[in-house]
From TrEMBL:
Native organism: Undibacterium pigrum
Superkingdom of origin: Bacteria
One Pfam match: Acetyltransf_6
GO molecular function: transferase activity
Domain BioF2-like acetyltransferase: from-to ranges: 184-328
Keyword Transferase: yes
Name the UniProt record assigns to this protein: CelD/BcsL family acetyltransferase involved in cellulose biosynthesis
Keywords carried by this UniProt record: Transferase
Length: 376
């Protein structure tokens, strides 16, 4: 690492200039996540960055070059509250400060540079001269813990675990199915038997790319909203009720990322009853948000759709299916492996910033609790 060069990109022109080297790095990183790609981050910045006289998001894309090659990139937003030069509060955090559209916000790096890119958090903390800066350090549990233990300038206030569940597709569908736990085997048997009993013909449709997905996106949003209204299962918000979230999906479909996008559709007698978005990430299929028609809930159509996607994935040569983040039985009963990510809220390590940071965290929790009581 003798030729290692650190650079923070803080202009739109600089961001665009990273496109070719960032995309090249994507091809070299094992188990690439959709949220690490150039196109995802470029679309996110266009849709979600905010600027007003008292609130301003600035780019702070940390990069590492070794021998002239981009080996790591960590896209950060540097948000000021107050006058730019005399801010009262600043928040430096990875791209993806949205309600769970960007599910995992870790740097993109060749394995040898995973912890080196995190060192730039300490560089950023040293630049603070006025007001309180809050940092959000996110990585795997192992890398984050090692960084915080060896960088005394950054003090962690609070942590949130982000478990990510991944199915490994060894062998074929029959061998995969035989290795499942008894409860999911029985659930699958009931799913398919109930359809056969009612003479419903099942069909999986897979739509790929912008041209195929765009005309069907409204139907996906409708089914997703229906899923959000269900009260007899794990509750999920309607993530696409916000127009900005739909604008973000449209931006992805207008970018090169659209080539990765798949929309899986489960049909019963020609009627679409369930849909799920997925992203092809090399040897891994990342499964994203879903929705279904509540009138067909008795057939457990989401379980059937996932089973059909798994079967479809084998001839497509996917080695893994990423079931996304969040621990619930719809993921854990399939017996996946788990990658543990963690989000640390941090401040610069001195007494008054630690005390003020803890005070702000307490106020946030009180506000969340109060908001929850008002909506009950």
């Amino acid at each position: 690492m003798s030729n290692l060069k650190k650079l923070v990109v803080d202009t739109d022109a600089g961001f665009e200039a990273l496109a070719a080297s960032w995309r090249l790095l994507e091809t070299q990183v094992p188990q690439l996540l959709p949220f690490q790609t150039y196109d995802w981050n470029r679309a996110w910045w266009k849709v979600f960055s905010d600027s007003s006289w008292y609130h301003k998001d600035e780019l702070a894309i940390c990069t590492l070059h070794d021998g002239g090659q981009l080996v790591a990139v960590m896209p950060l937003t540097n948000t000021h509250v107050g006058l730019h030069s005399l801010f009262v509060y600043r928040y430096v955090r990875p791209f993806g400060a949205d309600p769970n559209l960007t599910e995992i916000r870790v740097p993109l790096a060749l394995p040898a540079y995973d912890e080196t890119i995190l060192q730039q958090w300490e560089d950023l903390s040293r630049q603070e001269t006025f007001g309180l800066t809050e940092f959000q350090v996110i990585h795997t549990r192992q890398h984050a813990a090692h960084f915080l233990a060896n960088n005394a300038a950054v003090h962690p206030l609070e942590a949130r675990d982000v478990p990510n569940f991944i199915l490994h597709l060894d062998g074929n569908w029959p061998s995969f199915k035989s290795g499942l736990k008894r409860n999911i085997k029985e659930s699958l048997r009931r799913c398919y038997n109930s359809l056969a009993r009612d003479n419903l013909q099942l069909r999986l449709q897979v739509w790929k790319g912008a041209e195929a997905i765009k005309p069907r996106l409204h139907e996906f949003y409708t089914l997703h909203a229906a899923r959000a209204s269900a009260t007899d299962t794990v509750e999920h918000p309607d993530y696409f009720a916000d127009p900005r979230h739909c604008a973000f999906m449209a931006a992805l479909l207008d970018s090169d990322f659209a080539k990765r996008m798949h929309l899986f559709s489960l049909e019963l007698d020609g009627h679409v009853v369930a849909m799920r978005l997925g992203f092809a990430m090399g040897e891994e299929l990342y499964l994203y948000y879903s929705g279904y028609d509540l009138q067909f809930a008795r057939y457990s159509v989401m379980t059937t759709l996932l089973a059909e996607i798994i079967q479809w994935s084998y001839p497509q040569n996917f080695k893994r299916i990423n079931l996304s983040v969040g621990e619930d039985v719809s993921k854990t009963r399939w017996g996946p492996s788990v990658t543990h990510y963690v989000e640390h809220q941090c401040v610069k390590n001195n007494a008054w910033r630690r005390n003020l940071g803890n005070g702000i965290l307490k106020m946030r929790k009180l506000r969340r609790n109060w908001s929850g009581k008002k909506t009950d």
